[in-house]
């Protein structure tokens, strides 16, 4: 389950007011089961905090799943959440609209008080005055690693577009949670069966459609343990999120030796422990005839970009600007003594020393990453 550790799963969607109660109760049970398994395997969650609309005839049956996910977190906290890489910050990120506290149901306030009292959750509030629904989803998609959708409408479609545009897996489930017409996730699941490569990078690709078909909930609702096994078997075949390295690569440069040692002895280990697989030009095999094409395509599809400015190479600044413009998670580093230009000097930068032992340099980089990896993007 090492591919689960460090990955935040975003369970999103909603049901109609008059959906069949038994089906909706089943999916709440299933979501809680999968969320607890995710946390138990070292994964994390993305949730929305705020209101909780209720079924028109079943007044204890929510139409959305975020508070069910927080119930799962609460139950896991009473035991212990293992294996989550602290470098990534808290495992659960809750994103709220400007008036989320006013919209919180009274019966959910004790639950919120319990989960927020620990170090397992980070709260992000969207700044007022923005187009809040779209901005909330953009923030969630930037922080999440896998989208699992059920039911829903335009909001789910927007989330799927955001995840897919960044080459992050989207797993649309076809359970019927809408009464008048198919939900967004049902429609997306048909497209995923036809063109799975647009939704996720399953390994091996020739088995993608068959594997995805095992997650169908349209015609039967298997017991939650059985579906959980299918789901995590599927998730295990998806690649880990990618971390792109932008750094000095010119072996003739006097700083190259120390930069190489820093990346091989420190950055590689920190990135792997955080749940990412690295991509570095000149180290990994190239798929494109033109180097620049692969660089920018890979940054575009990466979840994290590590930019080391030692040597002040123009290409590193270009790649830094591109990653910031895409609102990627960006960690900036440089060897002590590097004189950063004005604009770059205003960014948080981890200054590493070649004189320190590698174990201490790992600890220092982990602490810096933990503080900065979930920063809000420069471009809102």
Provide an overview of this structure.
The chain is α/β, with parallel strands linked by helices and 380 residues long. The chain has two domains: 8-236, Rossmann fold (3-Layer(aba) Sandwich), CATH 3.40.50.450; 242-372, Rossmann fold (3-Layer(aba) Sandwich), CATH 3.40.50. It is built from 14 helices and eleven strands. The protein has helices at 21-40, 66-77, 100-103, 109-116, 132-143, 154-165, 184-194, 208-213, 224-236, 256-273, 291-300, 314-325, 342-345, 358-372, and strands at 8-14, 44-49, 92-96, 121-125, 146-151, 170-173, 242-246, 277-280, 304-308, 329-335, 349-352. The protein has a six-stranded parallel sheet, sandwiched between helices. Strands 8-7-9-10-11 form a five-stranded parallel sheet, with helices on both faces. The protein starts with 7 loop residues before the first strand and ends in an 8-residue tail after the last helix.
Report the mean per-residue pLDDT as an integer: 92
Global geometry = globular
Proportion of residues in β-strands = 15-25%
Q: Describe the strand arrangement of the main beta sheet, using strand numbers.
A: 4-3-2-1-5-6
CATH class of the largest domain: Alpha Beta
What's the story with the biggest beta sheet? 6 strands, parallel
Low-confidence stretches: none
Tally of contiguous helical segments? 14
Helix content: 40-55%
Q: State the order of secondary-structure elements, H for helix, E for strand.
A: EHEHEHHEHEHEHHHEHEHEHEHEH
CATH topology of the largest domain: Rossmann fold
**Structural class of the helix and strand makeup?**
alpha/beta
CATH architecture call of the largest domain: 3-Layer(aba) Sandwich
């Amino acid at each position: 389950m090492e591919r689960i550790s460090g990955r935040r799963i975003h369970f999103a969607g909603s049901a109609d007011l008059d959906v069949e109660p038994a089906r909706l109760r089943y999916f709440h049970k299933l979501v809680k089961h999968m969320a607890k398994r995710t946390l138990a395997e070292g994964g994390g969650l993305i949730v929305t905090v705020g209101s909780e609309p209720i079924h028109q005839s079943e007044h204890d049956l929510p139409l959305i799943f975020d508070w069910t996910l927080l119930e799962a977190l609460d139950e896991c906290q009473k035991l212990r959440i293992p294996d989550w890489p602290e470098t990534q910050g808290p495992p659960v990120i809750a994103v709220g609209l400007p008036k989320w506290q006013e919209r919180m149901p009274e019966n959910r306030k004790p639950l919120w008080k319990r989960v927020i009292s620990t170090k397992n959750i980070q709260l992000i509030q969207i700044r007022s005055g923005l187009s809040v629904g779209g901005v909330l989803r953009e923030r969630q998609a930037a922080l999440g690693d896998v989208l699992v959708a059920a039911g829903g409408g335009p909001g789910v479609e927007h989330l799927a577009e955001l995840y897919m545009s960044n080459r992050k897996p989207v797993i649309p489930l076809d359970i019927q949670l809408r009464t008048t017409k198919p939900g967004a996730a049902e429609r997306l699941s048909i497209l995923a069966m036809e063109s799975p490569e647009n939704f996720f990078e399953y390994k091996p690709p020739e088995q993608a459609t068959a594997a995805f078909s095992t997650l169908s909930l349209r015609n039967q609702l298997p017991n939650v343990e059985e579906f959980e096994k299918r789901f995590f078997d599927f998730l295990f075949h998806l690649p880990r999120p990618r971390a792109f390295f932008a750094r000095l690569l010119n072996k003739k440069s006097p700083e190259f030796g120390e930069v190489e040692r820093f990346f091989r002895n420190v950055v590689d280990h920190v990135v792997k422990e955080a749940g990412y697989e690295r991509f570095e030009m000149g180290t990994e095999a190239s798929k494109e005839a033109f180097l620049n094409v692969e660089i920018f395509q890979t940054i575009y599809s990466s979840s994290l970009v590590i930019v080391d400015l030692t040597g002040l190479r123009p290409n590193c600044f270009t790649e830094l600007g591109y990653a910031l413009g895409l609102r990627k998670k960006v960690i900036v580093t440089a060897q002590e003594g590097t004189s950063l230009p004005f604009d770059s000097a205003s960014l948080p930068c981890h200054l590493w020393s070649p004189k320190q032992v590698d174990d201490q340099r790992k600890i220092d980089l982990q602490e810096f990453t933990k503080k900065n990896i979930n920063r809000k993007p420069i471009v809102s």
